[in-house]
């Protein structure tokens, strides 16, 4: 017990030290040609005040100003699994469109609650991945053709149990590895704050570096744990990561959104210069 408390205390201290990351400024990112990514567990639109308020959630999504947004818990988990957001409102206000998939029900938005929103670009392929584990979990695997080039996005919500997360990470690795030379992002609520050997995210190595740019996003009122991640392959794809810590975001969900800036042009150029058709850490296809 004492050992566990020591590990917990060390994790809390590390999280507190990371509470002031470099802020992602979308205007600055756009001027560099970067793409702004965000991940947000919207907690079924129920805020820390216990109030169900989809309009408030949509306002936080608009605040993000991101080009690509992965949402988790965007549907009811049981029953009709109905979608909880007004996607047309988000299209008008945030200029983001939901990537079409086959939801669990006619009223649903996402796949196991996962929704991917896109500002502009073409979708070349979408896969709905079932993730193994005790709880029903899933991921969206979306291949995008953007102005700068091709990008694969894996939007996931991993399970609460460490053993399940380890198996889910291994499944995601298989999908990431078949992407050839396409730069790949893994984004979402990965439900893991541990680092090193105890972390279930170690199974994402060497494609993704789970220790890179971790920021505390949970709980939203006093964030201590880096549950929400934006991970890139190649590793230099992600240039900066920060939490979106606005007063409204602290109220709208128990998670804060995480924002990142990616330099897709540099990632694609780096692959060409290296003459390596494979992803970082993998053999060429």
* Biggest β-sheet: strands ordered side by side in the sheet: 3-4-2-1-11-10
Report the total helices: 7
- Tally the structural domains: 1
Which shape, going by the Cα principal axes? Answer: globular
- Taking all Cα atoms into account, the compactness measure Rg is 18 Å
Low-confidence stretches: 1-9, 11-23, 272-285
Name of the CATH class? Alpha Beta
How would you spell out the order of helices and strands? HHEHEHEEEEEHEEEHEH
- Strand content bin: 15-25%
Structure class: alpha+beta
Alpha-carbon distance between the termini?
Answer: 47 Å
The CATH superfamily bears the name Endonuclease/exonuclease/phosphatase
Number of strands: 11
Q: Helix coverage percent of residues?
A: 25-40%
**What is the CATH architecture term?**
4-Layer Sandwich
CATH topology: Deoxyribonuclease I, Chain A
Largest beta-sheet characterization: 6 strands, mixed
Overall average residue pLDDT: 85
Pfam families: Exo_endo_phos
Keywords: Endonuclease, Hydrolase, Nuclease
GO molecular function: endonuclease activity; hydrolase activity
Protein name: Endonuclease/exonuclease/phosphatase family metal-dependent hydrolase
